[in-house]
Amino acid sequence: QSTVQSYLEGVGVGLEQLRSAAQEVQSVCQDLGAARWALLDSADHCQGLQRMRALMAEHVQLASVVQVLPQLFSVQEVFSHTLQLLRGQQLLEAHVELMMMEHLRDDILSQLHLRGLSSAQATVLSYFGGLQELNESLAKQLWDIVGSSLRLVREDPVLFVTAVRIIEREEKIDNTLLLEATFLPPGRPKGWRQKFYHVLQETITGSLFHAAHVDAEGPGLARHLAALQKDIVSQLRVVKDLMVQCVPAHYNILNVCAATYHQTLSSHLQDILRENLDKQGLFLLLEWALHVYHSPEMMGHPDLLPEVDISSLGPLMSPELVDQTERKYVVKVKASVLEWMQRTLEVEFKEWFREEEPETDHQGFFQSALPVIVMQMLNENIQVASLITDSLQQKVYNMALEELEAFLGRLRDALVHCGKEHQKDRALPKYYTSYLLAMLNNNLALSSSVSSLHPDAARRQVPASLQAALDRTQKKACQLLLEELLLDLQPLCLQLPSHKWLSGSQLVSSMCEVIDRYTKDFSHVRKPIFTVLLMESELLVTSQYLRALMQKKMVCKSEEERGQLCHRLLQDATQLRELFCGLGLDQSQQSLEAIFALRELICLKDPALLSLEVLGFITKYPDISDEHISTLLDLRGDVSKDVRHMVLEMMVQHPQVLPQGYRPIFSTILVPVPELPFCLRKGKCA
């Protein structure tokens, strides 16, 4: 009962609170309704307040403008005074007034900016429109002064210092405004210090490098480079001794000027290189850029050291440009060398047809001026190139070897042409043999001199291709001489073999006289070539002798004739051997042994033993063919078909290989083709 009673009391209290809250809510609703009607009644009054606020803002703007009107009205008067100061070159005073007016303008604009009165800024700026004209007028005078700085620091440094002071003032103002960064006035930053450097660099560029067209020829270019050298050193000395004292240290004016000269000069040289310079001009430019420029006569001048450090500026010409220029130079030198060599060859060719022998040296060897002229020309060009760089010297050296190789090819062509002219008329040239011998000595002189061209004494080897060209030239001259010898030997060789020859004619003696006459001429060549000519002559005589025997002009009809033939072969071979031994050719270097061996084949009494004898013969002379052997068997006149077949079969079973270094004898001898038997009975044609 007590619990229920407690619950009922609680419910009663809750109901009472709800009744009180409902009454309060109703009261609030009534108050809100009243407030709503009051706000609706005051809307018209708010519109009036907005119009009043706009009028008040306009009044504030007008009040601000009115406050500065006295100062604005005085601006034009200050402008006129400042302009007069500028015209009188009173630059510092004019700049002070200019800064004052700029400060006034900037202050007014800043206040208007902070108050958000942007509409009034245009009005204020209209009063300061003359500031732009004053700035331009002052700047023009400053840049004129900077443009004449190299002269003014010598004649009137005060004016130049004044210009620098004004520039520094403006630079300080620029830096201050940039740091604040709240409001940047019109025309800021001016950047006059940067403009100072720009004008100074343009002045340097214009005074030295914007001159008239540079003469691409050597003398004109040399004068131009000499003038640049003199002017640059002179102007840098003025900068170092005078201008440095007129500007703040942080301007680093000497290094700035040195870098400007360096960069502009580098561009100027590239412009010159675009011209079609001759080889002298290219050489001058390379020498000047790589040697003179860094020398004590220019950037390394004692008056400029140590303040001017040219090594910090880099090369005046890049390695790529140097290489390109060197290649151009080599092309020009190559054209010049080619022209000189061609002219030398033409003169040499004309001398071959002279009516007198070639000149001789103190040892009696024939020679001409050709090797001296050629080697002197090549050596001089290589030595001149060494004055520039090692790379240029190597390029010219490689070019010289290429041109020498090409020259040897043209020399061989000239020898061939001369030989053809001689074949038409052997009386022309009169001293044909002598000039061929002189050419062999010249070729030997060239061969011994080529190695001295190499810049590196430790690597003085003749390149393989050039050595091959020298060898081909020597071979061609020797070939022409041997052809001349052959023309005199052939009429004699045509007379053997014959019965008159077998009976003891003086045919080989006549051949020896011809050989002896030629070897006397050969004595006018130096020993290495003399030995070569002697060996080739001996091989030629042997070959012609054997060729004559194999022309099938004679067949031994009896053992007595074979004996006469063997005796004649022995006498001829012995006489020829003694001749060549007497001329200085060792018996081991002779090929006449082939005649002695051939004689053994002829002298063999028993034909059945021919197989064994022929085997020994082909082993010693592996270039002999079965046609040669068959012809020799025919010459014997007593070899049966069976023996011949056995000999030839033996040769098939024993093929020979030419050993290395073997001098062919029989491979150059052609055997006449045997006549085929005509099997049909002869009869009249239908």
TrEMBL record:
GO terms for biological process: exocyst localization; exocytosis. The keyword Disulfide bond does not apply. It is found in: Cytoplasmic vesicle, Secretory vesicle. Keywords: Cytoplasmic vesicle, Exocytosis. InterPro entries: EXOC3/Sec6 (IPR010326), EXOC3/Sec6_C (IPR042532). GO terms for cellular component: exocyst; transport vesicle. GO terms for molecular function: SNARE binding. Interacts with EXOC2, EXOC4 and EXOC5; may be part of the exocyst. Belongs to the SEC6 family. As part of the exocyst, may play a role in regulated exocytosis of insulin granules. This is Exocyst complex component 3-like protein. It comes from Hemiprocne comata.
